[in-house]
Amino acid sequence: MTSIPFYPIGTPSSPWGDAELIQWRTGQSRQRYYRNDVVPRIEALAGRFETLTYGQLEYAGEHYDLFALRNERPDLSLPTALVTGGVHGYETSGVMGALQFLETHAAEYFDRINLLVAPCISPWAYERINRWNYNAIDPNRSFYPDSRASECAALMKLVAAQPGPFLMHIDLHETTDSDESEFRPALAARDGEKFMPGTIPDGFYLVDDSDNPQSSFQQAIIAGVEKVTHIAPADEDGKIIGSPVVANGVIQYPQAKYAMCSSVTGARFTTTTEVYPDSANATSQICNDAQVTAVCSALDFALSQT
User: Fold this and answer.
1) Is residue 115 over pLDDT 80?
2) 267: DSSP letter
């Protein structure tokens, strides 16, 4: 496979320095507003949930409060589940799906599990419709001790402060055409590597933890979501985004090794969702509905195992 022309920032084969970072950052313009799209919906839920301000971000004079919501009176005799969205700010249905779940279905689980939902982990990137944070760091590879990504450090502190063990964590993501046109080329340029083009799967899929595979859990989510949107098929090599398909719509990554968000709780049941908003057979609402269905299917299965 041949490489395509190099990303317009940087010098081929040379990692970025401060000048390239500044050039990249200058090109990131605000295209939407966290305080308009996300914060009012969180505030509207205040009477039904406890709202936690678990951190603040300050980037070049721009301030963002980080919010999570949970049952108003957690029951320490019950297990805990974490739902996260917007780790990658440009993956819109992760944020909107988490909010829609809170608005429509979360209360149905209050007597069975303690819910903790962080709808928008990366608000600066949400506003720029970007994968990285202000410092060109990928949050979904930065959930490690003393993380350089403030977004990640704040969430890990929040998770560590929760009483009792976590049973489940579902992290809501998208795979978009811009992964191939923008974000993977940018990653190669930032790291001084050659970009080798790949393919974008058409449909929903999941990323299981190869160090703690939970096949029945993943398939329960797929069974729910396929009633809402189509499941991504394997490519001609039996892979999705370069990883072998281990079951219908499921691939595996070593979550902790890659410092993924889905590794932060140490829960028995973990997964990362991936919807495809650029499909001719999907809409923004279908993607949001698929995320909500994935959360509910995940909770239903995890609770059936307790």
Assistant:
1) yes
2) -
